[in-house]
Amino acid sequence: MLFWVIAAVLTLGASLAVLLPLTRRAEGEADASHDLEVYRDQLGEVDRDAARGLIAPSDAELARAEIARRIIKLDAESARQSKKTSQLAPRQVGVLAVLAVPLLSWGIYAAIGSPSVPSQPLSARLSQKPADSSVDELIARAEAHLVANPSDGRGWDVLAPVYLRIGRANDAVTAYRNAIRILGSTTARQAGLGEAIAGSAGGIVTSDARVAFEAALKLEPADPKARYFLALAFAQEGKIADAATAWRLLAESLPVDSPWRAATDQAIAQAEARAAPSKETAGAPAPSQDDIDAAASMSSGDRTAMIEGMVATLDEKLRQNPRDPEGWLRLVRSYQVLGKTDLAQAALGRAYAALGRDSEDGRKLTELAGSLGLKVTE
């Protein structure tokens, strides 16, 4: 009801703003008629004063001439006003048009609109049936519920993957952690937490993300999400061959209709394309089936030790042959992913010295350093 009152007041104000100028002409006509009566009274007064001898005949004549001049001037203005008066019909049309706009618009809305539908503030929309709500309204409803009931683990568990799907990775991390804290660990929660942490880090599988994925594999060793992202961690560390091996093992275990098959096949193809030049540079042979089986069965600590050994080997080879841009990129990235920021920073400086900061390879190093959060100093 308040809306209609405000709308009526605004409509009335707009109409008056247009109508008032149309009424000022009529006021001018009334002023002219009043002035004419005043001049006539002045003429009569001059005649009476002259008859009683109060003023000289010559002065009376001058007064009459002045009043006559004013009457003539007023008559000319009255003639102009009469011409404007002949335009009364257009003015009336204008007045009718101004009044017709709100009347017609309100009448049409009353006929085809929905004036009887009540307003729906956010609280009212959130209380309606879920099937009638949008995704944003459902999320807002869930968030309002969790603000009032922060210990509702089921609510956090439902909201976490929704956050992840719409790109709110930081909120997904919080939701997954709350669900795990209240309801306990499951494979889906731990794997989802790892994916959310990686998403909040710009796609980098950080140490916290790896902990979550490894926790998921302890609960379900065949979980495809955890296995995929741990293989991605190998690739980000610069160990492309190990990443390709892990993805191949995952692909062999996936059913044909698995949603992870397409992503895994694409990752294998990219890893093989990248592994070929790196093998040539490192002089390492392709892994045998025994190597593949051994890598797959390693514990997390053994795998980390193996990766650190490979990074150290790469570091030594770059000391002997520093003209290897791809090698420097892998080394800097590997040290940073392993959490050895000091070594990554030192490797970046050595790479600049070997390749040149202003070269094309140097610019690639600068871009990589920026994405990893390393300092780029002159």
Describe the structure concisely for a colleague:
By secondary structure, this protein is an all-alpha fold. The chain contains 17 helices and no strands.
How does this model look, in words?
The protein has 378 residues and is mainly α. The chain has 4 domains: 2-112; 131-226, Serine Threonine Protein Phosphatase 5, Tetratricopeptide repeat (Alpha Horseshoe), CATH 1.25.40; 235-292, no CATH class; 298-378, Serine Threonine Protein Phosphatase 5, Tetratricopeptide repeat, CATH 1.25.40. The chain is built from 17 helices and no strands. Helix 11 runs antiparallel to helix 12. It is elongated and about 135 Å long. The protein starts with a helix and ends in a 6-residue tail after the last helix.
Write the layout of secondary structure elements.
Elements: H1 2-51, H2 57-85, H3 88-112, H4 122-126, H5 135-148, H6 153-165, H7 169-183, H8 187-200, H9 207-219, H10 224-236, H11 240-253, H12 261-282, H13 289-297, H14 300-320, H15 325-337, H16 341-355, H17 360-372
Helix pairs in contact: 1-2, 1-3, 5-6, 6-7, 6-8, 7-8, 8-9, 9-10, 10-11, 11-12, 14-15, 15-16, 15-17, 16-17
Domain Cytochrome c-type biogenesis protein H TPR: 143-259
Subcellular location: Cell envelope
Keywords: Cytochrome c-type biogenesis, Repeat, TPR repeat
